[in-house]
Amino acid sequence: MQTTAVVIGAGHAGLAMSHCLTARSIDHVVLERGEVANSWKTERWDSLRLLTPNWQSRLPGYGYEGGDPDGFRSMPETIRFIEGYAKSFSAPVRTQTKVTSVESDGAGYRISTDQGEWRSRIVVLANGACNVPVVPALATALPPDIRTLTVREYRNPSQIEPGGVLVVGASASGTQIGEELQRANRPVTLAVGEHIRAPRTYRGRDIKWWMDAAGVMNDRYDEIDDIVRARNVPSLQLAGSDDRRTIDLNRLTGLGVRLVGRLAGVAGSKLQFSGSLRNVCEMSDLKMNRLLERIDEWATANGMDGEAEPPHRFEPTRVEAAPPVNLDVRSSGIRTVLWAAGFRPDFSWLQVPVLDHKGRLKHDGGVVAPGMYVLGLPFLRRRKSSLIDGAADDARDLFAHLTAHLDGRTTLSPATS
Questions:
Q1: Fewer beta carbons below 10 Å: N end or C end of the chain?
Q2: In Å, how far are 28, 171, 173 from 256, measured between CA atoms?
Q3: What DSSP character marks residue 235?
């Protein structure tokens, strides 16, 4: 089968590009291994809500129209939103079509699937950044009677047998699930690595409102000193909830969660943790305060000081005097380990020389190779690139490059490293 463009993935990013292609009457197909919004339907826990307010779901030609712009969508609501987007412009989605390889054929690309083969001049990779949960190699050394599962497998506390839980990872997923499990009488020990602390509200407004207004979310990839580092920064410690509560480490310890450092090793039933917990938390507090300083500077420069509450700072993260660096899983009552250490994308099916020695996709702001693009990765073109709100601007930028490529013009260089 022949078409001008193939988009791989029918989540919000793939649909954003499909909308751009449809608006210009460029023939294309969207290939989806499952259903529209598949990962939202099959790989999220029950109580999860979006971290961004409803008003911030802005896609090309589509946005929030309900009566609660400052609320946070549940998973069923998010699924309906994305399905509604696909229906709004009759996106040409082929569901239950798994891509097995993408190869260059000289004039473009050959895309093989379990439902047949496509040839196109353009390929857009929009299969997501959260394909494979990060599980360290040391996981294999855990005692066989300790149950393990990943964030992608977790649904609710009823899955977890009575007893303690070690949650590995303290970004958005780890802190939210840690709070839920602690409240469900599954005593939580949280292994804390690098994380970014943030308040849900600041000076009377949602932190995402401030970050959007102050231009933080629009920081560009080509203006960052170390973009590789920026693309690996953990997600903010945020949760979307009706009471707009902040879920940081202080809240968790107040509920009884015990903090330990990064999980560094396993020896029999002994777990070994890094001794850098205090330093990691101090660095997180420092980064939060830098963000608040930037917001304060913007508020002053734009005459907001009279409208907003006064600037303030939050209590530093509380860390016990001597956090344990060793725990015995049996004597400490830990029965389950939940991995919340992040995800990585899966591009193993790409038969094109665009991966580095670690299997990571090389790209320049989403331009991978002539006629090949990627959407939805962290800090792809902007700080907000991995959010629903970031797909619109990134898709428009890359669509401009895509049409230039089709016309024989060039506006950006493909990645070289």
A1: C
A2: 53, 18, 18
A3: P
**Cα angle vertex 370, ends 366, 373, to 5°?**
25
Q: Name 276's Cβ contacts closer than 8 Å, sequence gap at least 6.
A: 261, 262
Note whether 178 and 154 are within 8 A (CB): no
Per the CB < 8 A criterion, the answer to whether 39 and 128 are in contact is yes
Would you say domain 5-131+345-406 falls under CATH 3.50.50.60? Answer: yes
Is 134-339 in the same CATH topology as 5-131+345-406? yes
Tell me the C-alpha to C-alpha distance, in Å, between residue 172 and each of 83, 238, 322, 343.
25, 5, 25, 12
Return the domain boundaries, the chain: 5-131+345-406, 134-339
CATH number of 134-339: 3.50.50.60
The residue to which tokens 């919000």 are assigned: 12
Residue with tokens 């209590």: 315
Residue in 197, 157, 184, 75 with CA at minimum distance from that of residue 338: 157
Cα–Cα distance measured from residue 4 to residue 120, given in angstroms and rounded to the nearest whole number: 5
pLDDT in tens, 297-322: 999 999 999 999 999 999 999 999 89
Q: Which of 415, 411, 389, 388 is nearest to 398 (CA)?
A: 411
Residue 95, strand partner residues: none
Whether this model's pTM surpasses 0.85: yes
Q: What percent of the chain has pLDDT over 70?
A: 98
Q: What residue type is 333 in one-letter code? A: G
